[in-house]
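I am writing to request your help with a piece of structural work I have in hand. Thank you for your consideration; the sequence and its tokens are set out here:
=====
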Amino acid sequence: MRPRPLPGLCVALVISCSHGANRPATPPAECRSVPMYEGSIHAGSIYAQPFLEPRSKTHQSLDCGSGPLAVYTLEYADSDEAERATAFFGARLWGGPGPSAQHPDELLRKGTVVVIISGANPAPLLPTYTRQGFQPHRDNDATAIHVPQDISAQVLAEVRKRLDCATSPRHCAALDGFANGAPPLPMARPSIGSMVLLGPGAGERREQLAWLIVDAGGLLSGDLRPENADEERQVRELLAMLSSGKAVPADHPLHALVASVAREKRRPTATAGRSITLEDGGDYWVRDVGNDVVVITAFQERGGVALVVGVFPRG
């Protein structure tokens, strides 16, 4: 069994829409409709399964003379939310400050409206949007640190909806204390707990043994995956122990195993409301609820948004 650090996990933000002055632009007359075209997998996944379904969104498949394009339009409740969503979408589309030869999708915003133009050559459509006041998004300061807001009531409600308290009583109990929790203080040593992955599909649920480090250097977390039948048995026993409200004994060999990764680079954190969260824009919230530290994560999968709830005894 070996500790595996988890990569940064993210979620696309989609809020409700508004109408009027910020309505999307009309494509030029020379564009023609083509059979369903989704563009890049990044653009398609952002649009297909937003975490909070907007009141209005559109998908057009067009050819404006340079090959097929997917035009995704999302309207938001206000310009602040549209701006936040645009920043998140840019990171998902490009993995850098703007379009590239490998990731040519364009991202534009005007007020409350965000438009993604996805395809091999979005250039022919850009003037149509810029003439009507849409501005191409670029992350001109690639070193800027984005600190996410604290967890929303909608995310917590969705976690409660998906979590089965009959099979995860400790996670449900910890979640009850989450609203009144506080940013955790540094932990004296790594904690071994459990994470429940709640997939976007009905009944998609998986529990894993996991570990958490919170100290002055930041945060590090990961899972413990068994590599043979004997380790699978150990994991089942430890998960049952944690579910009953007990902690993994301090002299268990797993503690030394997890401590071996303590020298790895931490993911820097910031305080947001009652949580600490990551400074890289990931949706990752951590709170101290008394005897436990609770971690909630949300990230985009092809079929929608997956959620993770981790409970780690403070020890």
Notes: The longest strand covers residues 205-215.
